[in-house]
Amino acid sequence: MPYENIIVETREKVGFIQLNRPQALNALNSALLAELTEALEAFDKDDNIGAIVLTGSEKAFAAGADIKEMLSLHFADAYLGDYFSEWERVTRIRKPLIAAVAGYALGGGCELAMMCDFIIAADTAKFGQPEITLGVMPGMGGSQRLTRFVGKSKSMDMCLTGRMMDAAEAERSGLVSRVVPAGDLIGEAMRAAGKIASFSLPVVMMTKETVNRAYETTLAEGLRFERRVFHSMFALDDQHEGMSAFAEKRAPNFKNR
Ligand code: CAA
After folding, report:
1. pTM of the prediction?
2. Which UniProt keywords apply (predicted)?
């Protein structure tokens, strides 16, 4: 279907999605959610895609959930419809998903960036959970994911005061993996995604799954899981190819098998 709220492109082995509601600073409404999850799931199923980049505009990655859509929401509707639960579909994408963030990433925008596997930020990026200023609190994962990223003290500060964090503070706090000049943001994210897409896809996907396990389990269980997944990689032709290529001083030719 043609998309109205996002722009979707395939660039070699990288799926590229740009949020595109400029008139609302990419506020996340239901229509955008439906399109974004459909596009992400299509890339996830596409054998030619090895990684995905998600970005917004220069001014805003996304300025939050759509406040105008929520304005008349009643508790019963929110509860019965399990409002925001559909966003969890983003976290079920199995291929690496990189958020390339410039400008505002506020409320649901910050939460969407945190659902991605890592965040590359432009030096113009501003992160925040300002829901408290609207009489609510984060509802798309901010209270939990931000706390895991930056720790209790800074997460409390952000969620309780609603203040914004600039890109330098976000990098210092571990929220983003790298900060680049705004003009290089898409190039840097596409290069990172292209690099990932050049590796063995099953190994990439198992690596993502295993790192994510660190957030869901104890250290002992996580280490056991890692070892078992590591062992299983020796069933792949790509393990033999990668190590042979190293020994033979040539580039590997991974077949995703
Ligand atoms: N929802 C709906 N519309 C939004 C929006 C949002 N989250 N953020 C911005 N917009 C709209 C504005 O209403 C405005 O539309 P109009 O031109 O029709 O009035 C347009 O986008 C441009 O915004 P501004 O004129 O406000 O732009 P600015 O440069 O002066 O300010 C801003 C930028 C500081 C980001 C400001 O827009 C702002 O504070 N936005 C709201 C941020 C926010 O509170 N986000 C949290 C939302 S709640 C949430 O996300 C819940 C959750 O946990 C998931």
Report:
1. 0.98
2. Fatty acid metabolism, Lipid metabolism, Lyase
